[in-house]
TrEMBL record, chain B:
It comes from Streptomyces canus. This is Carbon-monoxide dehydrogenase medium subunit. SUPFAM superfamilies: CO dehydrogenase flavoprotein C-terminal domain-like, FAD-binding/transporter-associated domain-like. Its EC number is 1.2.5.3. It comes from the Bacteria. The lineage of its organism: Bacteria, Bacillati, Actinomycetota, Actinomycetes, Kitasatosporales.
Amino acid sequence: MTTSTAAKYGTARRTVTMHVNGRDVTREVSTRTTLADFLRDELDLVSVHLGCEHGECGCCNVLFDGHSVRSCLMLAVQGDGHAVETVESLSVDPTELHPIQESFAEEQGLQCGFCTPAMVLRTKEIIETGHEMTDAEVRHEISGILCRCTGYQNIVNAVQSAGAKLRGEAAADGAAGGRS
Amino acid sequence: MKPPPFMYCDPESVDEAVALKSEYGNDSLVLAGGQSLLPMLTMRLARPEALIDINKIGDLQKIERRADILEVGAGVRQYELEDHPLVGELVPLLPEATGHIGHIENRHRGTVGGSLAHADSAAELPCTAVALEATVVVQGPSGTRTIMAQDFFQGWMTTALEPEEVLVAIRYPVTPWTAGHGFVEVARRVGDLALAGAAAVVNLDEDGRFTSVSVGVLGISDTTVRASAVESALIGEAPTEENIARVAEEIVPSVTSGDDLHATRAYRRHLASVVVSRAITAAVARAHERSNGK
Ligand SMILES: Cc1cc2nc3c(=O)[nH]c(=O)nc-3n(C[C@@H](O)[C@H](O)[C@H](O)COP(=O)(O)OP(=O)(O)OC[C@H]3O[C@@H](n4cnc5c(N)ncnc54)[C@H](O)[C@@H]3O)c2cc1C
Ligand code: FES
Ligand code: FES
């Protein structure tokens, strides 16, 4: 290691500032900590579920600058200056569920719940495209997340029901003159 | 399942990344999308002294047309190949093949350069690079050099990259608008690595006969295979179903993969000619559509 490289990079810890669920958080992290462990252990965002820890199961998916990614395949230092969204951003209050969460409950789109936060976030991402999706399209879009429990049909129903609700709301907003 | 310690470096220029690569050589690894490297780190299959994260290098993230070449920076994310209008227009095989890489969550992070450097023989981008006769651009301490994709992939997860080099871009010749392309793969589930797959680009003359055929085949050997015997046997032939199916058999001797958990050797030999024939058939259909749309 040359002294210049060592001076610039040779430390095992870094301070990072990340925009998480709408607020800026600054923490010192070990450079080898994954984003998933950072969100769970440092920020207590335990909706980020670790199944396989090597990119197969999708249960650790979060939205990174608006795109779904495997948080077990990123380092926390890579989040510096970026925005991360976990399912806690939708609602942590069981009496005030987000329409997507409501649909998962109504359609029984979960059993043990392990894959559910990832499924809910992915649903948020795909229904933002705004168009109605067939069963086959929904199945394709959620195929990156493994559910061991449901057989998927109820999840497909939940995604479609949430999409219909949110498109309805958007249309109603539009009719009311685009109030936000 | 936690990565081992490493010195984390996040240079903002290619020159600095190359300087780090030349300083650390084999003791360093480039971190691009992390979709293959992070699993290797967490499973402790890789223990680099220095990790060189190239995600902050803006110069690696460009997609540009230069005359008859589409140049794609190594750091371009795979999903951008699917969505970018220039890519779909100039090299339409790319978006089609890229959609088969893992799941969208992987393509949101995974990069073009990462897939090429990783050189999995079942991967889609190395296969399209070979079929499209693309050129890989690498930069080392003494400057840049270019390598034909066919020569870049040397064996199982082995490329022509030297330890002190960084892959910076890939240059795809623009596909003539009259050409047809096809990409077909067979995987056990959507998102899994394919058991076998093929990428084809064809040109037909006024009488509808093949004037050029280019086919890359994935999953059947240590590295992507160019189906040269199939290509030369088709030139001058009419693109009939029988001709294509008969000539596609020429790929069978190139299948060197043995039995594994996912498929037997016999099944892969069968699959190889099936995917080759389907990819060429799809390419012919596209070429016909284009010439009818004239
Ligand atoms: C669940 C899952 C399914 C997948 N399915 C498929 C699939 O079907 N098809 C497929 O092709 N891939 C698949 N992949 C792998 C693919 O997602 C990766 O994107 C790709 O293999 C590596 O690209 P990366 O940008 O993530 O590179 P990284 O993981 O960051 O790097 C991979 C290797 O390349 C080296 N490297 C990267 N960039 C450079 C560079 N610019 N210069 C020099 N060396 C470099 C790294 O040091 C490392 O050795 C899958 C991955 C997962 C997790
Ligand atoms: S824990 Fe990240 S994909 Fe399984
Ligand atoms: S509800 Fe149990 S894993 Fe999906």
